[in-house]
Write a structure and sequence with these properties.
By secondary structure, the protein is of the alpha/beta class. The two termini are about 25 Å apart.
Length: about 110
């Protein structure tokens, strides 16, 4: 798992695909760690994803800070490390992944359609 606390943090890919989320604020980080981290890690390991948690605002400019934190997810593909992945799956940080969840990429096999 890559836990990025600043824009300078780097990712060394271990897989072709990644699951990414953004957590804004310590309370959200702590809640995600308790409620989601274990099942996200298990899912990522089962299906061969790198797990990337961005724990900072990708756009910390006044304009970015003035927008809803949900807007920040639109910037994931602009991150320096994103180009090394074949496919990136976004999951909102308040999602708990079911133990029997299938590989999302098999459910959407044609990347040109997403």
């Amino acid at each position: 798992m890559f836990f990025l606390e600043s824009p300078a943090d780097e990712v060394s890919p271990g897989h072709r695909n990644a699951i990414v989320t953004v957590l804004v604020g310590q309370a959200y980080v702590e809640t995600w760690r308790v409620m989601c981290e274990a099942n996200w890690r298990a899912y990522a390991e089962r299906w061969g994803f790198d797990l990337i948690v961005i724990a900072h605002l990708p756009d910390a400019s006044p304009r970015g800070r003035g927008r809803s934190p949900a807007w920040q997810k639109l910037l994931v593909l602009d991150q320096p490390w994103s180009g090394v992945y074949e496919r990136i799956v976004w999951i909102d940080a308040d999602i708990v992944i079911a133990a029997h969840a299938p590989d999302i990429l098999r459910e959407v096999p044609d990347p040109a359609k997403v």
